[in-house]
Amino acid sequence: MAIEVRDVNKSFGKTPVLRDISVDIASGSLTALLGPSGGGKSTLLRVIAGLERPDTGTVHINDVDATVLTPQRRNVGFVFQHYAAFKHMTVFRNVAFGLEVRRRNKADIRKRVMELLELVHLDQFADRYPAQLSGGQRQRMALARALAPEPQVLLLDEPFGALDAQVRKELRTWLRRLHDEVHVTTVFVTHDQEEALDVSDSIVVLADGVVQQVGTPHDIYENPANPFVMSFLGPVTHLDGRLVRPHDVALSRTPGGTEATVTRVVSLGFEVRIEARAGDREVWAQLTRAGARDLDVKTGDTVYFSPSAEARTLAAA
Predict the structure, then answer these.
(1) 20 to 30 A Cα–Cα from 38, which one of 112, 139, 188, 271?
(2) How many domains, the chain?
(3) Does one domain contain both 272 and 145?
(4) Largest CA distance in the chain
């Protein structure tokens, strides 16, 4: 394992932020720390980086006990949400900075920096200043700067959080391609479920300072460990005390299951959302356009909701 976190606890004052955290991060993997705000994701990342000291517990990086090592001695690269660029330096100098302070020779620095700028598609902007780049380009520069000293581990704290939705989507695709080229062990913090499912090899779900579940995106989505994970990793609806994914709901005009009255039919391009009221509870289902056309329901119609035969359900909390 590249990173082994064992029994880590961390409090700020009297407020516990991490509670008995134990996590293994495989070498060469791209792992997401996913959860709601205040769940402990960034604190765990900072503990791994050495920017925070755990109250109890240990952190090993590549079989070395790093618990008391300074960040500089852990050989990790760190990228924050806000790029922390040196505004008075060119893109080239920003990326070269970490190598210059390590006193590498100029020829090696230039070779390494230009390789990285080409890798992140910024080689044509080497002589520009950060203010002359777009937000997405500045974040790619920050990633190149973090990779320059060839860290064993790359840590990203909500790296795309300050960008608009379309740029975030483009950059997460780019990050996955970059990772597949450089294969550095990477851990990134996000509260965006789609981002975690789209990019990562493994997801660590954190809430209230506790690890709720660890697994592949497929395993966590299809086999959530508890109602929180199921609800956080995608939309759910409640049917007779059970949680079920809306796309796993079977809708019928024939009595059976939960009786409900349609309150709204929403076309969302490739799918149709059927919203309804069952007693005092709102329920809903996602249908394909073909399925909705065949059912032909309208506001005010009576329909019956039930989990499909292959649906995964959990008892509601």
Answers:
(1) 139
(2) 2
(3) no
(4) 78
Express each pLDDT in 31-40 by its tens digit: 999 999 999 9
Q: What is the 3-state secondary structure (H, E, C) of 182-216?
A: HCCEEEEEECCHHHHHHHCCEEEEEECCEEEEEEC
Return the minimum-mean-pLDDT range out of 74-78, 84-88, 128-132: 84-88
**For residue 265, what are the domain limits?**
235-315
Strands 281-288 and 271-278: antiparallel
Within 13 A of 231's CA, how many CA atoms are on the CB side?
A: 13
Amino acid identity for residue 100 in this structure: E
Same domain? 212 vs 131: yes
Distance separating alpha carbons of residues 150 and 237, to the nearest angstrom: 46
Pick from 235, 147, 213: which is nearest to 185 by CA?
147
Token pair in block for residue 243: 């949680």
The pTM (predicted TM-score) of the whole model is 0.87
Give the chain's radius of gyration (CA, Å).
24
| pLDDT in the model for residue 258 | 94
Q: For 20-26, which contacts have Cβ atoms below 8 Å and span 24 or more sequence positions?
A: 20/57, 20/210, 21/57, 21/209, 21/210, 21/211, 22/211, 23/204, 23/211, 23/214, 25/1, 25/185, 25/187, 25/202, 26/1, 26/2, 26/185, 26/201, 26/202
Identity of residue 155? L
Report the CATH number at residue 270.
Answer: 2.40.50.100
Please say which residue of 163, 197, 228 terminates a domain.
228
Examine the fold and report which residue of 196, 228, 260 is the final residue of a domain before the chain moves on.
Answer: 228
What are the angstrom distances between the C-alpha of 180 and each of 173, 175, 187? Answer: 11, 9, 14
